Amino acid sequence: MTMTVFGLCGAALVGIGLYGLIVQTQPLRRILAFNLLGGGVFLLFGVIARRGAIDGLGSDPVPQAMVITGIVVAFSATALAISLVVRLKETGREDDEGSA
Fold first, then answer.
1. What end-to-end distance do the CA atoms of the chain give, in Å?
2. What fold characterizes domain 2-91?
3. 56-89 burial code (b ≥16 CB/10 A, e <16)
């Protein structure tokens, strides 16, 4: 029962993040939507990894290590993306017009 709730929450986060990526035009909101999408994927991956532990089998540490590594990489990518958005705002260039 609990894993089903976590799975549904993960799927909802993926859906909301994907919706935000498609609909939003502001760069900061797109970054936040991408973080929601990534959080949902991490949650779904953790639920899939824990499924064997519920049935009485030992849980596999490899997916857990991959999720932790993914969280660290997502944090650093978010910091880089936010710094690039701030740099674009400082130079006065319009982000959402698509001018090259």
1. 51
2. Helix Hairpins (1.10.287)
3. eeeeeeebeeebeeeeeebeeeeeebeeebeeee
H/E run at residue 22? helix 2-23
Mean pLDDT of 19-33: 93
**The residue to which tokens 């857990």 are assigned:** 64
Q: How far, in Å, are 15, 47, 48, 76, 93 from residue 42 at the CA level?
A: 13, 9, 10, 16, 34
Phi-psi category of residue 82: left, alpha or beta, with phi > 0 → left and psi -120 to 50 → alpha: alpha
**What residue segments make up the domains of the chain, in order of their start?**
2-91
pTM metric for this prediction? 0.77
